[in-house]
Amino acid sequence: MKTLRSVVGACALLAALPALAHAQSYAADRGSMLVGGTASFSSSATRSNGGPWNRSTRLDLGPRVQYFVLPGLAVGGDLSFSRAFGDVTTTDYGAGPTVSYYFGRAERAWYPYVRARVGLHRVTYSDGAQPSESWTGYAASGGVVLMLSREVGLDAALTYEIPSDELSDFRTLAFGLGISAFLF
Questions:
Q1: 82: which of 87, 92, 104, 157 fits an S-S bond (Cβ 3.0–4.6 Å)?
Q2: Helix and strand counts by DSSP (H, E) for the chain
Q3: Average pLDDT over residues 156-161
Q4: What is the DSSP letter of 10?
Q5: What whole-number distance in Å separates Cα of residue 144 and Cα of residue 76?
């Protein structure tokens, strides 16, 4: 029985070798990996229970790792750290899955893309009067990676984020810049 398992395992490995040995020919090809991140500056408006709008300024840092499962289609994860300055300073940590589609199937100087992500976040308040809270947010981005070399590009994106909580009137529109390194 053990020999049969070994033979089946060896056959499965031999059958998978062509897929594993697929040589990536460009940055967004199947089997490539993207390691990068963005930094963004944003302005947010929040409102609770229909009250007045409160504005805040926010700095976000977001490292990202993605794997191209198909040419142009990448899945992976994002981390996020943000600090908002306004009436109360808040710190937000988050993580979640992301999926991106990069347009263009060949070696090129730039790759436009669209991205969607879900993030689980934890927010703390500097005044101590409010307890920490958790929330889930959804974000959609559109941007472009301008390739500086064959493997490294400058990433520019516009992102719109909303919370899953229908009672919160929190919306963010942010412009971010970053670096993307493609490993292939």
A1: 92
A2: 1, 8
A3: 93
A4: H
A5: 18
